Amino acid sequence: xxxNSDLGEGFGRWxxxxxxxxxxxVTSANVACGFHAGDPTTMRRVCxxxxxxxxxxxxxxxxxxxxxxxxxxxxxxxxxxxxxxxxQLAALDGFCRVAGxxxxxxxxxxxxxxxxxxxxxxxxxxxxxxxxxxxTLPVLGLPGSALLRCAAEVGLRTVAEGFADRGYAPDGTxxxxxxxxxxxxDPDEVVARALRMAVGGEVVAVNGASLPIAIDSxxxxxxxxxxxxxxxxxxxxxxxxxxxxAPFAPGDLLRP
Amino acid sequence: xxxNSDLGEGFGRWxxxxxxxxxxxVTSANVACGFHAGDPTTMRRVCxxxxxxxxxxxxxxxxxxxxxxxxxxxxxxxxxxxxxxxxQLAALDGFCRVAGxxxxxxxxxxxxxxxxxxxxxxxxxxxxxxxxxxxTLPVLGLPGSALLRCAAEVGLRTVAEGFADRGYAPDGTxxxxxxxxxxxxDPDEVVARALRMAVGGEVVAVNGASLPIAIDSxxxxxxxxxxxxxxxxxxxxxxxxxxxxAPFAPGDLLRP
Amino acid sequence: xxxNSDLGEGFGRWxxxxxxxxxxxVTSANVACGFHAGDPTTMRRVCxxxxxxxxxxxxxxxxxxxxxxxxxxxxxxxxxxxxxxxxQLAALDGFCRVAGxxxxxxxxxxxxxxxxxxxxxxxxxxxxxxxxxxxTLPVLGLPGSALLRCAAEVGLRTVAEGFADRGYAPDGTxxxxxxxxxxxxDPDEVVARALRMAVGGEVVAVNGASLPIAIDSxxxxxxxxxxxxxxxxxxxxxxxxxxxxAPFAPGDLLRP
Amino acid sequence: xxxNSDLGEGFGRWxxxxxxxxxxxVTSANVACGFHAGDPTTMRRVCxxxxxxxxxxxxxxxxxxxxxxxxxxxxxxxxxxxxxxxxQLAALDGFCRVAGxxxxxxxxxxxxxxxxxxxxxxxxxxxxxxxxxxxTLPVLGLPGSALLRCAAEVGLRTVAEGFADRGYAPDGTxxxxxxxxxxxxDPDEVVARALRMAVGGEVVAVNGASLPIAIDSxxxxxxxxxxxxxxxxxxxxxxxxxxxxAPFAPGDLLRP
Lengths: 256, 256, 256, 256
Known about the structure:
Chains A, B, C, D: GO terms for molecular function: 5-oxoprolinase (ATP-hydrolyzing) activity; ATP binding. By secondary structure, chain A is of the alpha/beta class.
C-alpha cells in the first residue's frame, strides 16, 4: 500500500503544511508545480528531500490560478490544458533529475482533479499530456473516474486511491465539500476507514451501504491542524495491520 | 555561422513578432519559457516548428516579470535565480522532447542578459542552473561577459554572439539603449556591419575604433517593423559571402 | 445612441487594437482593469485620452486570468468575484480621477460577460460590487440577461447594448462563437444590421425571424483587421441616419 | 504616538501573521494592495476590521512581485512605478470606501521602501503617485530618506517612523538585514529601545553612539513568532509611559 500527500504547496514567502514532517511519513509526494502553488525553490527542496528519503515524486498539476489555489474550475480549451499540464510536468521533472530521481507519476490537483472525475475533455487533455511526455508514467486518481478511464485509453497505467477522511456517495464518488457528510473529522474513524479500505477493500457510503473499493494508495491531507499526527497514526495502523508501505512507482528504481 | 533570434514572445491572446517567418530564416531560435513571455501553447508550437525545419531551440530564460517583459533588472537571490532558470529550461525541454528534439543551448533574455554581462552572482546563478540540468548545453552570450566566464568556469561550452544593429562601446560591450549610438537603424549599414563581424572579425565602435570580435552567432531581432525583411537580407548576404549558415548546437543530431 | 468598444487591452510589452484611433470614433470606452488585460500605464493613457476627447470610461472588469485573456469561465466563489470586481473598478477609477473624470459605468468582459447572461450567482456578484462602490453607476449588458436583471434588483441603472456583427438566437441571446452564424463579417451587412437595431429597434435572428430589440448602445470590436475602418463607417452611417452619438453616461458632467 | 504594522499580507489560500490580533493593538494598519501580497477579499476584510476598530488604513504599496513578496529591488521605469503605485492605492481605497473609511496614508513595502530611502527616482515616483491621487495623504517613512524629502517637495505631509527591533547605522539608516546587528531580538531590549525613541527622542546606533530621532510612529512587525505578544507589550509600555496612542492620520475624521 502507498500513502500519498500533497506537498510543496507554499509559494514564495508563504508556506503551507509541514513538508519535512510529511516526507518522513508518506511514500509518495504529490508536488505542486507552480501554477496553483509551488515555486521553483520549493520544488527543488521537496524533490531533493523526497529523493533522499526514497519517497516517490508525482507531478501535482493544476489550473493556472495562484489566487484561487487551483480550487476553481476553469473552462480550459483542451489543447491549452494539455500544454499547461505538460509544462508543469516537465518543469518538476527538471528538479527531480538534479536530485537524482524522476517524476514517477501524475496526479491532478484541486478543481482539476474534481473536474477530471466526470469531464471527458479535461480528463483526456490531462492524459494526453502524460502520454506525450512519458507513456510509462502512471496516473493517480479516483476509481471509476473519467481521468483513469482516459488514461487507460491512451495506454497509461492507472492507480486508484482512496480518501479515508472523505465521505463517499453511493456511486463511489466523493461527497461534495458543500454537502453534509463530506468530511470525516474524528481521527479514530479516519483510521478505521483507512484500514477497511486498504485491508478490507470496502468503504461505507453516506447512506450506510458498504461499497467495494480497490485502491493502491491512500491520500492523507497535510495542510490542516493535526494532519501530520493523523498521517503518522495512519502509517502505524497500516503497518501494524501487516501492509507493507511502499511507493506504487518508486523513483529509486530509476537511479543508476 | 549561426543566426539566432528571439521567438515565441507572445503570451496568450497577445502576439509579438512573426515566429513562422523567422523560423524559415534563422538557424537558432531563442524561445521564451513563460516567465517574461511565452505560454505553454506558444512554446509547443515554436518547438514543433523549429524541429520540423532543423532550427536549434535555445532556452531564453528570463526574470519572472510578465508586466515588464523581463526588461527590468530584479535583485534576485542567486539561489532563487538558479531555480527559476532551471524551471524554465526544463519546461521548454519538455516541449522539445514531444517535438522530437531537445533544448540545445541557453541564452538569457533582456535585463537578465544585460545584468549577467557584469554581475558575477547572477551570471554564476544562470551558469549553475545550466550545468546542473545538462552540462553538455552551451551558453550563448556576449564575448567578454561575466556570463560566458562563469559558464566556462563550471565547464560549459560558451558561444559568443554579435549584434549587427547595436552600437559597441570601445570596451566591446553594447552601448546602453538610453545612450546615443545604441541602435543602428539603416539596413545597409546593419548588413555591412554583420559581414564585417562575421567575415572580418571586427566591429567599429562608437568612437570609430575598430575592435576585434570573434563570434559564432549573429543575433537578429524579430519584433520591430521590417525585422523579418532585414533578417532575410542578412541571411542572403552572409550566404553570398560564402558563410555556411548552420546552428552551433543542432538539435537533429540528438534525434534517434 | 452610444458606440462602445473595448480599449486598453494590451499588457506591458504587448499591444492589442488601436486605442487612439478608436477613441476618436466611439463615445464610450470599456477599459480593461488589469485582471484579464490592461496594465496601470495603459489604463492611465487610455483614461487620459478618453477624458480629453469626451469619451466616457467604463470599467471592463474581468476574471483574473491574463493567460486566458478572461475568456475562460472560472467558477468563482461569488464573494470573491464581488471583491475582484470592486478592486478593478476602484483601480480604474483612480486613473480616471487623475485624468479629471470618473468611471461612469461597468461592463464585464469576455467569459464573465457571457457567464453573467445566465448565471444568477455571478451576475449578482458583479451587480453587488457596483452597487457597493457607487450606486449611481449604470451597468452595460445584454438585454434580457441575468446581469441586467440583478443590477436592476439592487437599484442600478441598466443600459442595453447590441452587437451588429454577431448572430442572434431566436431568444435574443448571442449565437455561441462555436456555432455557425456566430459572426457577421460582411461590412455592408454589419452596417445594415446596426441601423436596423439602432433605428428600427429590431434584429434578424439566425432563423430569419425578426426580433424586437431596444438598445442604447452599440458595441464595436477593435481588435480585428479592418475593425477601425468598420467602426468609422458605423459612426458615419448612424450619424447620417439622424442619430446623435453621445455617451449614455458622460464623464464630463462630473467635472467641476 | 502611533503604532503601525503590516497587515493583510496573505494571498488567496496563504495567510501570514494574525491580522485580527494586530488590529486590536496597533493604531495604523499598512495594508498590502495585491502586487506583492494581499488579495481583494483579504483587503476588504482588513479594511472593514480597521474601520470597525478605529485603526487608520495606509496603502502599503509594493513592487509587482508576488513570488518575491516585494522584497527584491526591481529597476522600474519611474513612470511605470508611479502608475503601479497609483493603481494599488486606488484599489485599496475602494475597499476603504465600502467600509466607511478612506486610505489615510501611504507607506511603501519591502524593497520599494528600502530603495526609496536613497533612490531619488523611485522615491519621487512614489511621491508623485500619492500627490496625484490625493495631495492630502501623508507618506510614512524613514527619517532622512529620499522618500520623505521627495514627498515634502511635492507638498505632501511626511510622517517619520522608528523601528525598535532594528539596528541603526551611525547615519540614522537601518543596518542591512545581511549585516550583523540588523535585528534586535530580545523583547526587553525592543521595549526599552521603543521607549527611548518615543519618549526620549534618541536611539543607540550599532557603534554605541546615541542618535537623535524624531518619530511620530513606531513600526511593529507581525509575521514572526511572538510578534503579537511583543506588539502588545509595546502598546502597554508606551501607554504606561504616558504616551497617548492614536493614528497620525485617523480615518474616522473622514466619515460623515
